[in-house]
């Protein structure tokens, strides 16, 4: 768990709420640190099978068939009066920012030839205030995310893991959804120390036309 000072130099550093309009995430900047100066967060998990390390602030994502893991977790982020509304006369008031999430992770060998299955699922409820939306990334609403990968049982030092992902976000202010599908593959040349990832994604945001992207990423971990 953590308690932190709220920052004022976020993506809405110059934004102010319109009278009678949507919330703006600028509580500390517009209301002051006494009303909106702290954020609270935490994450709790239970390991049913092998225990994952929590030495680093992130997990490896897959153990390439070397462990059998099944975890469930729950997390939260809270920023009292983190967002700001302006009424019809321009008077400002705070709205709490609250994010709640539940997730599950499964990673285990599959078969006897070196294959492995990796699966992750997340449900998240995001409340940034009334009708909040910033770009096509942050909005008040809900999100479901799933990711499934399969490590091919090849007898080589280099390992290949094709995967698919799916995201569905409910956007309250638009009364519509955003959906994103990803299809890709990881190539592990020396485990997690050297990896290439290639992914195709298509994003359909409410009534807008779909946006398609291809990403190639190289990672070296020393």
Quote the average pLDDT.
Answer: 92
Taking pLDDT < 50 over at least 5 consecutive residues as the criterion, the unreliable ranges are none
Roughly how much helix do the residues carry, as a percent range?
under 10%
**If strands are numbered along the chain, what order do they take across the biggest sheet?**
1-2-3-4-5-8-9-10-11-12
Number-wise, the strands total 12
Q: H/E series, N to C?
A: EHHEEEEEEEEEEE
- Classify the beta-strand content into a percent band: over 45%
Morphology call? elongated
Q: Total number of helical segments?
A: 2
Largest sheet: 10 strands, antiparallel
Rounded to the nearest angstrom, the distance between the terminal CA atoms is 28 Å
């Amino acid at each position: 768990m953590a308690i932190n000072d709220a920052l004022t130099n976020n993506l809405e550093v110059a934004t102010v709420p319109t009278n009678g309009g949507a919330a703006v995430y600028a509580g500390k900047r517009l209301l002051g640190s006494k009303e909106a100066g702290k954020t609270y967060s935490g994450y709790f998990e239970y390991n049913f099978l092998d225990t994952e390390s929590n030495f680093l602030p992130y997990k490896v994502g897959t153990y390439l068939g070397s462990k059998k893991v099944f975890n469930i977790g729950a997390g939260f982020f809270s920023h009292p009066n983190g967002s700001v509304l302006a009424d019809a006369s321009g008077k400002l008031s705070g709205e709490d920012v609250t994010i709640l999430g539940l997730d599950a992770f499964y990673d285990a060998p599959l078969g006897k030839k070196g294959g492995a299955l990796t699966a992750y699922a997340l449900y998240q409820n995001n409340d940034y205030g009334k009708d909040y939306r910033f770009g096509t990334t942050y909005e008040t609403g809900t999100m479901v995310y799933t990711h499934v990968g399969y490590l091919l049982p090849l007898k080589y030092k280099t390992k290949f893991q094709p995967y698919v992902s799916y995201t569905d976000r409910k956007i309250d202010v638009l009364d519509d959804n955003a959906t994103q599908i990803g299809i890709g593959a990881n190539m592990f040349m020396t485990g997690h120390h050297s990896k290439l990832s290639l992914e195709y994604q298509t994003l359909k945001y409410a009534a807008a036309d779909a946006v398609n992207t291809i990403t190639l990423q190289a990672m070296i971990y020393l």
